[in-house]
C-alpha cells in the first residue's frame, strides 16, 4: 500500500512540476509578447537589420542602423541605386514605399507619428561617388500630420560637415507631382524636380530626386533634378548613397 501511495504522490508531484514548467513557459511567452520597443534606440540592436516596434497602437517594421552614426538610429529613407522610383504621388508618399533593405521611404503618416510621440533628432548621411561621406544632424525633427500637409515643422539646431541645406525647407509643406503645396507660384516644384519633398521656392535640397551618377553640370535640362544637397556638391551633383535617420532625444 505504501508503494502505491508513493507512486501516486510521485505522479502528482510530477504533474505539479510539469504544470509549473508550463506556466513558467507560458508566462515567459506572454512577457515576450508584451515586451515591445518604441524605437531602435530602445531596442539597442547589435547589428543593422529590421525589427518590429510599436508606436501608440501601430505596429511597424523598421530598419535600425548601428554603423553610420552609432547605435539607436531608425532609417526613414535610403537611396543606394536607381532601382526604386521616387517620383511618386501623394498617396504613395503618405503610405511609404520601397524595400527596407535597400531603397525606400518610410511614409509620411509613420514619420509624423514617430516624430510627434517623442522628440526626435534627424541625421542626414551623404556619400559621393568618390567615397567621401558627410553628415548633417538636427536636434529637433518634427513632421506635421496630413491636415498640416505633413509640414516640416521643426529642425532644431544644426551640426555637421555637409552644410545646412535643409534649413531652407523648414516649415514647408510636403509636395508631390499631384499635390502642389510649395511657395513657388510659377511651377509645381515636385513635378519639375521629379520627387516629393518639402519644397520652398523651390530647393536647396531634394533627397528624393532622380538617382544620377555624380556630376551632371553639362546637362542643363537636368539642373537640380538629382539627389540634391546644395551646400556640399551643389545642385548639379547627385549622391551615390543617402540615408535619413531619426532617434529619440
Explain how this protein is built.
This protein has 249 residues and is α+β, with helices and mostly antiparallel strands. The chain folds into two domains: 1-35; 40-248, Gamma Fibrinogen, Chain A, domain 1 (Alpha-Beta Complex). The chain has six helices and 14 strands. Strand 7 and strand 8 (152-154) form a beta hairpin. The relative contact order is 0.14.
Sum up the structure in keywords.
249 residues; alpha+beta; Gamma Fibrinogen, Chain A, domain 1; ten-stranded antiparallel β-sheet; two-stranded antiparallel ribbon; 6 helices; 14 strands; globular; disordered N terminus; GK22020; disulfide bond; Fibrinogen_a/b/g_C_1
CATH class placement of the largest domain: Alpha Beta
How many individual β-strands?
14
DSSP helix count?
A: 6
CATH topology of the largest domain: Gamma Fibrinogen, Chain A, domain 1
Q: Describe the sheet with the most strands.
A: 10 strands, antiparallel
Order of helices and strands: HHEEEHEEHEEEEHEEEHEE
CATH superfamily of the largest domain: Gamma Fibrinogen, chain A, domain 1
Q: Based on the structure given, which CATH architecture of the largest domain is correct?
A: Alpha-Beta Complex
State the distance separating the first and last CA atoms. 71 Å
**How many domains?**
2
> What is the global morphology?
globular
Gyration radius from CA atoms, angstroms = 24 Å
Strand content: 25-35%
Keywords: Disulfide bond, Signal
Pfam family, one: Fibrinogen_C
Domain Fibrinogen C-terminal: 31-249
Protein name: GK22020
Amino acid at each position: 500500500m505504501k508503494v502505491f501511495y508513493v507512486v501516486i504522490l510521485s505522479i502528482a508531484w510530477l504533474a505539479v512540476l510539469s504544470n509549473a514548467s508550463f506556466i513558467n513557459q507560458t508566462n515567459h511567452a506572454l512577457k515576450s509578447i508584451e515586451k515591445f520597443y518604441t524605437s531602435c534606440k530602445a531596442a539597442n540592436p547589435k547589428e543593422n537589420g529590421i525589427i518590429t516596434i510599436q508606436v501608440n497602437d501601430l505596429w511597424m517594421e523598421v530598419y535600425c542602423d548601428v554603423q553610420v552614426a552609432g547605435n539607436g538610429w531608425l532609417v526613414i529613407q535610403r537611396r543606394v541605386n536607381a532601382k526604386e522610383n521616387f517620383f511618386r504621388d501623394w498617396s504613395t508618399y503618405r503610405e511609404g514605399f520601397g524595400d527596407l533593405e535597400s531603397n525606400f521611404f518610410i511614409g509620411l503618416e509613420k514619420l509624423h507619428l514617430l516624430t510627434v510621440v517623442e522628440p526626435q533628432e534627424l541625421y542626414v548621411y551623404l556619400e559621393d561617388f568618390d567615397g567621401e561621406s558627410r553628415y548633417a544632424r538636427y536636434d529637433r525633427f518634427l513632421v506635421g500630420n496630413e491636415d498640416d500637409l505633413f509640414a516640416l515643422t521643426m529642425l532644431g539646431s544644426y551640426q555637421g560637415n555637409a552644410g545646412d541645406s535643409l534649413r531652407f525647407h523648414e516649415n514647408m509643406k510636403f509636395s508631390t507631382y499631384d499635390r502642389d503645396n510649395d511657395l513657388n507660384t510659377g511651377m509645381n516644384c515636385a513635378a519639375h524636380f521629379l520627387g516629393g519633398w518639402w519644397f520652398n521656392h523651390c530647393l536647396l535640397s531634394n533627397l528624393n530626386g532622380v538617382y544620377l551618377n555624380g556630376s551632371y553640370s553639362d546637362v542643363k535640362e537636368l539642373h537640380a533634378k538629382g539627389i540634391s544637397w546644395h551646400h556640399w556638391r551643389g545642385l548639379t551633383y547627385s549622391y551615390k548613397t543617402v540615408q535619413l535617420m531619426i532617434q529619440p532625444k
